[in-house]
């Protein structure tokens, strides 16, 4: 199997692991406050991947990976800072506008990642991939659409778009160091982004959840954030920021499917319409990759 096909598998695996986060977070949010939970999800990713790396080392199954150097320091710092800023902007947006509006505007992250990759990082994006990205955006908008009053542009919308821009830059910064150890990158990203979010949570007056729920959140963070980001970075090495982001966009659809299985939720008709469009866009991405 060639490296491109393996990279596609990594990207889809990353999306699948992250999608588990959707239904399980809904359950855990009954026992933890949002920002505090986000902090421990990140910390679960950082600590979990650190232990994952140690396990590989002691069992002799460690994959040889290039460590980060001083040369990658600017991208590493930017990655962490943007990962702290984006959730804060998103929270401000959620507080100032409707959840439906937030869901719709969140789809801008895919477009932002692609435009930043093209304009600033000079990544080559084919016409076929642009079409796939456009279809992904349309499909995601349909999936998150909640009626004619769902979209209202206001100050909250600007915060959400700011969060998407931060994540767009963060995705590209991560791509610039994706040839280095993905385990080390996730440990740094998870630990420092988690600590930053934890400070914000305390400033907001949120409380640490009970130990049993805290352990559940850390475990979910390891799987849905740590392993997911680990595979995402491995996919970026061969696919680039724009294409990996496009593949990763199947996560909301998988999240709906997992919600159907775990929470017995029934999707509306727009899910099936969006799913057909997403299948077409995925086909175009695969054709453009292989």
Annotate the secondary structure layout.
Elements: H1 3-19, H2 21-28, H3 34-58, H4 73-96, H5 99-105, H6 108-119, H7 127-144, H8 155-176, H9 182-203, H10 211-239, H11 241-248, H12 251-262, H13 269-289
Instruction: Tell me the β content.
Output: under 5%
Mean pLDDT: 86
- Oligomerization category of the chains in this entry: single chain
Would you list the SSEs in sequence order as H and E? Answer: HHHHHHHHHHHHH
Low-pLDDT segments, ≥5 res: none
The N- to C-terminal Cα distance equals 11 Å
Q: How helical, in percent, are the residues? A: over 70%
Number of E strands: 0
Number of helices: 13
Morphology: globular
Supply the helix-strand structural class.
mainly alpha
**Radius of gyration from the alpha-carbon trace, in angstroms:** 18 Å
Question: What does the largest sheet look like?
Answer: none
Structure description:
There is one protein chain. The chain is mainly α. The chain contains 13 helices and no strands. It has helices at 3-19, 21-28, 34-58, 73-96, 99-105, 108-119, 127-144, 155-176, 182-203, 211-239, 241-248, 251-262, 269-289. Helix 6 (108-119) crosses helix 8 (155-176) and helix 9 packs across helix 10 (211-239). The termini are close together.
Task: Give a short synopsis of this structure.
This protein has helices spanning 3-19, 21-28, 34-58, 73-96, 99-105, 108-119, 127-144, 155-176, 182-203, 211-239, 241-248, 251-262, 269-289.
Give structural attributes.
78% helix; 290 residues; mainly alpha; globular; single chain
């Amino acid at each position: 199997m060639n490296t491109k096909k393996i990279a596609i598998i990594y990207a889809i695996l990353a999306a699948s692991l992250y999608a588990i986060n959707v239904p399980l977070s809904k359950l855990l949010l009954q026992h933890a406050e949002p920002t505090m939970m986000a902090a421990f999800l990140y910390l679960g990713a950082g600590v979990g991947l650190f232990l994952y790396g140690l396990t590989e080392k002691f069992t002799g199954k460690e994959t040889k990976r290039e460590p980060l150097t001083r040369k990658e320091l600017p991208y590493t710092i930017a990655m962490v800072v943007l990962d702290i800023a984006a959730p804060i902007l998103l929270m401000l947006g959620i507080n100032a506008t409707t959840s439906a509006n937030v869901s719709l505007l969140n789809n801008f992250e895919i477009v932002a990642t692609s435009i930043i990759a093209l304009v600033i990082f000079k990544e080559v994006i084919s016409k076929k991939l642009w079409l796939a990205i456009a279809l992904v955006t349309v499909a995601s908008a349909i999936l998150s659409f909640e009626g004619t009053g769902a979209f209202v542009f206001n100050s909250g919308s600007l915060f959400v778009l700011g969060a998407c821009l931060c994540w767009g830059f963060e995705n590209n910064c991560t791509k610039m160091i994706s040839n280095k150890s993905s385990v080390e990158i996730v440990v740094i990203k998870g630990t420092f982004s988690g600590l930053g979010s934890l400070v914000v949570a305390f400033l907001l007056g949120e409380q640490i959840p009970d130990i049993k729920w805290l352990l559940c959140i850390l475990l979910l963070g390891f799987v849905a954030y740590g392993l997911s980001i680990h595979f995402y970075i491995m996919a970026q090495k061969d696919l680039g920021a724009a294409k990996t982001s496009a593949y990763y966009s199947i996560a909301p659809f998988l999240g709906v499917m997992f919600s159907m299985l775990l929470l017995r939720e029934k999707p509306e008709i727009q899910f099936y319409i969006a799913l057909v469009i997403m299948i077409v866009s995925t086909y175009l991405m695969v054709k453009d990759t292989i």
